[in-house]
Amino acid sequence: MRGIRLVITGWVALFCCATSYAQVTLSPFTLYGVGDIKEGSFANQFAMGDLGIGTPTVFHINGMNPAMLTRNLMSTFQMGVVADIRTLSSSNGSDRNGGANLSYFAYAFPIVSGKWSSSFGLVPLSRMNYNIGYTTNVNNSTTQVEYLFKGSGGLSKAYFSNGFKIYKGLSLGVRGSFVFGEFNKSAETLLLGVPSGTNYTTAYREKINYADFEFGGGLHYQQKLTERTAINLGVVYDLPSSISGTRFAGLERRSGSGGSTPGDTLILDQSVAFNLPKKLGFGVSFENLNKFTVGFDARISEWNENPSPEIVSTTYQKGLKLVLGGEYTPDISSVDSYLARTTFRLGAAWERLPYLANGNDVTDFGINFGSSFPMGVSSFDVAAKIGRRGSVTDNLIKENYIQIYIGATINDRGWFVRRKYD
């Protein structure tokens, strides 16, 4: 019964995740494409800079390489919450904002212990939340006009993964995902210096809903060096996919008091598509079982121009991310010290984002750290990242941010085991 209650709790969490993603922090860099792309990692991997392609784990789910699922010998449930605080800086000044939301839900369980494990869950794929404005003069006039661009929404993935041990030390993983989400965007113009009773905003707004499938897979090879040490190699590949959707676009007239009057419908139920890129990732790690692991990941994403219309056009390029991280547990079997059983993690990640801003590269660098505090074979997971994105040069914006993940991992050997009584 305990296992059933936990599974029901998980599905409640799944529903909460699906309805809570909108509470995200404002970032002007989410203006491009489908917004800020997420890695699909959980708190334990985030604490190492999103390390996971070649880094196996026994007590957590690997959300980045499905081939690693064969290491899950127990039923494992994970969920997490993320908070984000950002300071935006430009040549005109700075601003600060923040937010928090439920982030992910995942469940993994062995079907044939050590040979076949499965996992399903809900994770974010992208998040969009921006509010950008600027003021300029009307041509041949001293009257000023303000332009406002707003956008919100994102994509989520409901995934199902399987990992199979196909040969000694070699595992294969496959993953299928249902990708869905909604984006709401608007562009407004407002004449300044006009009496409030006659000041109206002309607004263009659009809504796009996407729903489609994507597929990917991975490999994991482990070469044992001694009884407790090993080298792990991992590779993941996500197939390029075109997610289909429908688009609505129309005009509104908004008054300075906040009221709005619907205008013409410009587009109704237009079929659109967005091209998700093919992604290739490699990872390698050195593992001393239940003591420490050090790893390195490299990921490349090949983005192409998209047929889906955008209020602000986006120029894409190859995305690149490099990660170095590791974890350390002083003494996993200690009975005298709780901290000795605690796992400590540290990582660093550098990323070139897959788009150009004002014709310039946008890079992101951060230092990650965190811990898993044991509760039997389960844990309370905490992770944080201190990062910087962008630059104030070339009329760009710089973001200094702190992200905090708080997660729970519940492991149980007997959720689906039929108990016998004498």
Overall residue-averaged pLDDT value: 86
Major pleated sheet: 14 strands, antiparallel, barrel
Number of strands: 18
Unreliable residue runs: 1-23, 416-422
State the shape.
Answer: elongated
- Determine the structural class based on helices, strands and strand pairing: mainly beta
> Radius of gyration over alpha carbons?
24 Å
What is the N-to-C order of secondary-structure elements (H for helix, E for strand)?
HEHEEEEEEEEEEEEEEEEE
Strand content: over 45%
Instruction: Figure out the total of helices.
Output: 2
The span between the termini is 19 Å
Strand line-up in the sheet with most strands: 2-3-4-5-6-7-8-11-12-14-15-16-17-18
Helix content range: under 10%
Task: Please describe what this structure looks like.
With 422 residues, the protein is mostly beta strands. 5% of the residues lie in helices and 63% in strands. The chain contains two helices and 18 strands. It has a 14-stranded antiparallel β-barrel. Strand 17 and strand 18 form a beta hairpin. It is elongated, with a radius of gyration of 24 Å. Residues 1-23 and 416-422 have low confidence and may be disordered.
What's the quick description here?
By secondary structure, this protein is mainly beta. It is built from two helices and 18 strands. The chain has helices at residues 2-20, 43-46; strands at residues 36-37, 75-90, 93-112, 116-137, 144-167, 170-191, 200-224, 229-238, 241-255, 260-276, 278-288, 292-302, 315-316, 318-328, 343-357, 360-375, 378-390, 398-412.
